[in-house]
Amino acid sequence: MPEVDLYRKITAEYCDATHANLKIGDPRLSYTAEEEMEIEYPIEQRNRIELNNGNSTWAPNENELHYSQEFYIGNPSAFFGKEKITDSENKIGIAVHIYSRTSKFQETVVLDGSIEDSPNEKNLLFDYRFEKGTLRGAINLDFFFYLKESNKNNLFQANEVGLRLSQDDIFSTQLIIDGNGSTFPITETDNPSGPLWQIKKLWKDPMMDPFNASSVQIELNRKHKNYNMLEKNALSKDGVYALLMTQIVAQSIAMIVVEARRDVEDENEYFEIEDASDGSIMKVVDYWADIYGIDIRNDNIMEVFNKVFEGMKEQYNEN
Q: Using one digit for the tens of pLDDT, what is the confidence trace for 265-308?
């Protein structure tokens, strides 16, 4: 059924250059490196931001993520008046709904500052830090106007603080944390008689060794007859080769989970995964166990693969 508005809402027309003249800056992402330096994360498109794409050293389990964005209202008066969105004695705010099924959280964050009846430009800043270890899958951010302060009510105007005033989101974006294999150390080789891919186990101590190319690799074979098609389509979300890359990553995860746990148990049958070093292979195994519902004590690699594969397909369907 179509939505029936009981009060006036801010439409795209209200926001255009001849009325409120709303302008929205690009998202800015950054993180703090080991040297305590703030490093800007490069963004290729503003409405879908893929992280862990090889453009930086940011890692979801090792670094927080700083997100900031500016909102400019050139003529706030366009929203105010008896026949407009709200009375001149009231105030409007901007908020963002942040939610993720894969990260299992949602919250609404209110931006500092208010929009009041004035012909002068008003700037509001969204400034937020995602703590390390909290991001996975797809995180959605939907920005909207809401009634921040109500001092006078008129007919066909919102009369309760907190009511959403936007007809549609004024800006939406999605942070994609787990790309299609992008979080894996991927290397290449030239072997005409070899398989399309293989997983290389290089670690000595999964509790200590970092999850990077020095410890584990997915090695793709450039001389395999299917390599070119895989290379062209591995990061796309459609087609048979996107499915193939998903299967490769899922199989790799299953093998790493089982092998790493066996190696740790050989040293200490009663190990605690909480004792693993940050950024280590076992910390990543623990991360996978959480998002895919894996029992890391399960020795059946096919059961582990099936869990991971179904979880990855669910993530991509959400994206």
A: 998 888 888 888 877 899 888 888 887 888 888 889 999 999 99
Q: Tokens 């509790």 sit at which residue? A: 207
The whole-angstrom separation of Cα 69 and Cα 30 is 12
The answer to whether the pTM exceeds 0.90 is: no
| Whole-angstrom Cα Rg for the chain | 24
Cβ atoms of residues 216 and 281 within 8 Å: yes
HSE (side-chain half, CA atoms, 13 Å) at 165:
29
Which contacts (CB < 8 Å, 24+ apart) does range 101-110 have? 101/137, 101/138, 101/318, 102/136, 102/137, 102/138, 102/178, 102/291, 102/315, 102/318, 103/134, 103/135, 103/136, 103/137, 103/139, 103/177, 105/134, 110/148
Q: What is the pLDDT of residues 14-41, one digit of tens each?
A: 999 999 999 999 999 998 876 677 888 8
Phi, psi of 195 (to 5 degrees): -75, 165
Q: Which residues contact 261 (CB under 8 A, 6 or more apart)?
A: 206, 282, 285, 296, 297
- Report how far Cα 138 is from the mean position of its chain's Cα atoms: 4
Determine how many CB atoms are found less than 10 A away from the CB of residue 18.
9
